[in-house]
Backbone:
């Protein structure tokens, strides 16, 4: 038969293992850049929150004033994978990176403190690689005159 002190030790060990499996994310809300608070504030997420969500937006100050300068705003938080995917799909049409328009992009990542960096060009990197490969192909074809008959 198991004595009560051994039973309580097992319970404490199981609880501490369960708590230590929680994700850690950087958190901040509408900061003007990815510095200071966004890089120094870390929270342990709730048990059900399994991803870190990062958001970057470009626009004028929250209270619109005529002629206000546009700037970046960074927000980071814990989220569930499903909630993050829903949020991303709702705002990604706004992820244009057009300097004269307000835009907003988001990214979800999995792993402790994975949202240290803000990756705002995720949708544009594949087109950049495609453009680079196309340019390389044109250079090769013109170098060896493949199109000549």
Residues:
């Amino acid at each position: 038969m198991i004595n009560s002190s051994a039973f309580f030790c097992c319970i404490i060990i199981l609880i501490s293992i369960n708590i230590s499996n929680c994700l850690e994310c950087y958190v901040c809300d509408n900061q003007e850049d990815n510095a200071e608070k966004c890089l120094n504030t870390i929270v342990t997420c709730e048990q059900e929150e399994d991803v870190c969500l990062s958001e970057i937006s470009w626009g004028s100050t929250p209270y619109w004033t005529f002629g206000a300068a546009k700037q970046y705003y960074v927000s980071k938080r814990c989220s569930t994978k499903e909630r993050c995917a829903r949020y991303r799909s709702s705002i990604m049409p706004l992820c244009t990176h057009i300097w004269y328009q307000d835009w907003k992009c988001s990214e979800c990542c999995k792993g402790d403190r994975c949202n240290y960096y803000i990756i705002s060009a995720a949708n544009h990197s594949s087109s950049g690689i495609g453009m680079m490969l196309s340019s390389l192909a044109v250079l090769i074809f013109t170098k060896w005159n493949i199109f000549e008959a």
Summary: The first strand starts at residue 24 and ends at 26. The helical segments are 4-20, 37-40, 81-91, 122-143. The beta strands are 24-26, 28-31, 42-44, 51-59, 71-79, 103-109. DSSP finds four helices and six strands in the chain.
